[in-house]
Design a protein that fits this description.
354 residues; Rossmann fold; 3-stranded mixed sheet; globular; binds nicotinamide-adenine-dinucleotide; binds thymidine-5'-diphosphate
């Protein structure tokens, strides 16, 4: 069996559903259920004997040690994190606690456990540290995409906390021999993403007739990967990745934020004839320290592991918008009072104008 941390979040829930469908190996999910974690994301697994959930903190070393002792997973897929960059600007501390302290405690518990394993089990064990391309900093237009040798130059508290986690993961491998692999992935999109991130936020606002807040000139570039493709990449790395290596994962889909917003509006216009959702676009104050461009050079994962993204952005964004259109109950459930408070704090100019 494998242990997944953060399995009730956006990528974690997609990963567990994909894993049980494709690999059919039992999963233990350790998740603290912060504002970003929803048990409902895995409701389809109710009663499935191959799935177990434990509510808890990755920083709780006694709990993690006990789970490792009792369940003896052959791998840890570490996804638990504070993941929203704008929140890290508003309040950096939780990012240090979850992403840095939490990851270090998890590494510590994993190492203590790994040392006790018989040699064949120890050799097969993997700690997969799931990270982001944001650790590399910002690219200018035309500059070469991030490869694995690109220096870490994080610009936000979120990116710095993930970069720190990457460094500690590397150190636990180099110093203590723990079989760690790190992946650095570009922006994910797909079902069940919390509507604070660009794509679900825009869909949510457009459907409510609310302004679509584009930071600055909206010409910042991100590389977009469907979450299902991220899951297949993580499976490939876990299966065939070299211990001690890092693998960059990307969607070969660089888009400006304005292009993404207009693509969403186009799908919504088709679904709701008569409406012209792009009229809702509003340019708002830019994000402090806003990275201009991220781009991934996926040569290593493509050539070594034979992985490449399967879902084209145009199809993926269409499917994603339709998922939100048909899951209004999910959106209503996660956009509670606490969510509304965050949105009002984050977009004061829009709320003043409304
Ligand atoms: P998310 O915010 O949707 O989910 C995070 C999950 O972690 C939640 O279920 C939350 O309850 C849980 N969690 C938070 N702190 C915890 C703790 N201390 N102990 C146990 N559980 C805790 O995030 P996501 O978008 O699914 O991202 C998952 C991982 O992938 C993160 O490490 C993120 O940095 C990384 N990543 C995300 C993207 C992206 O575009 N979303 C891209 C590349 C990498
Ligand atoms: P986001 O989904 O927060 O991911 P990240 O910052 O980790 O790349 O944002 C994606 C891009 O969209 C980023 O350039 C910031 C921009 N953005 C907006 O323009 N408006 C918004 O309301 C949000 C949430 C993001």
């Amino acid at each position: 069996m494998i242990l997944v941390t953060g399995g009730c979040g956006f990528i974690g829930s997609a990963f567990i559903l994909d894993w049980l469908d494709q690999v059919r190996e039992p999963v233990l999910n350790l998740d603290l259920l912060t504002y970003a974690g929803h048990l409902g994301n895995l409701r389809d697994l109710d009663g499935n004997p191959a799935y177990r959930f434990v509510r808890g903190d990755i920083a709780d070393i006694d709990l993690v040690s006990r789970l490792l002792r009792e369940h003896r997973p052959r791998a840890i897929v570490h996804l638990a994190a504070e993941s929203h960059l704008d929140r890290s600007i508003a309040a950096p501390e939780p990012f240090i606690q979850a992403n840095v302290v939490g990851t270090c405690r998890l590494l510590q518990a994993a190492h203590d456990h790994w040392r006790t394993l018989p040699p064949t089990e120890a050799a097969a064990f993997r700690f997969l540290n799931v990270s982001t391309d944001e650790v590399f900093g910002s690219l200018e237009p035309g500059e070469a995409a991030f490869d694995e040798a690109h220096p870490h130059r994080p610009n936000s508290p979120y990116a710095a906390s993930k970069a720190a986690a990457d460094h500690f993961a590397r150190a636990w491998h180099r110093t203590f021999g723990l079989p760690v692999i790190t992946t650095n992935c570009s922006n994910n999109y797909g079902p069940r993403q919390f509507p604070e991130k660009l794509i679900p936020l825009m869909v949510h606002n457009a459907l409510a007739g609310q302004p679509l807040p584009v930071y600055g000139d909206g010409r910042q570039v991100r590389d977009w990967l469907h979450v299902v493709d991220h899951c297949s990449a993580l499976r490939a790395v876990l299966d065939r990745g070299r211990v001690g290596e890092t693998y960059n994962i990307g969607g070969r889909s660089e888009r400006t934020n304005l292009e993404v917003v207009h693509a969403i509006c186009k799908v919504l216009d088709e679904a709701r004839p008569g409406a012209h959702h792009a009229d809702l676009v509003r340019h708002v104050e830019d994000r402090p320290g806003h990275d201009r461009r991220y781009a991934i050079d996926d040569t290593r994962i493509a050539t070594e592991l034979g992985w490449r993204p399967a879902i084209a952005f145009e199809q993926g964004i269409r499917d994603t918008v339709h998922w939100y259109l048909t899951h209004a109950d999910w959106v209503a459930c996660v956009t509670s009072g606490a969510y509304r408070h965050w949105v009002e704090q984050q977009y004061p100019s829009i709320h003043a104008a409304a």
